[in-house]
User: Fold this.
Amino acid sequence: MTIPYERTRALLETKSLLLKLEDPTREPPLPESVREHARALLRHYPSYSNIEAAHKALPELYASVYPPGLLDDPLQPYAGDKK
Assistant:
């Protein structure tokens, strides 16, 4: 059974992976099609504030994105996260 902390962490780690995959400076280089696919997925991926709103609405399903230890730097927004 997946607990809220695990579900939220999976969302955050998936976003981190997609950001790495779309990075054109990544070594070794990835095919452009992989970077484009990651970029397309990121376009509609939930932001910190979206995930936090999901936590507030459904705390039995999602944890807060701000508890100590969940993120390396919880105050640093995702790239492209709009306030």
Summary: The radius of gyration is 14 Å. The CA atoms of residues 17 and 48 lie 15 Å apart.
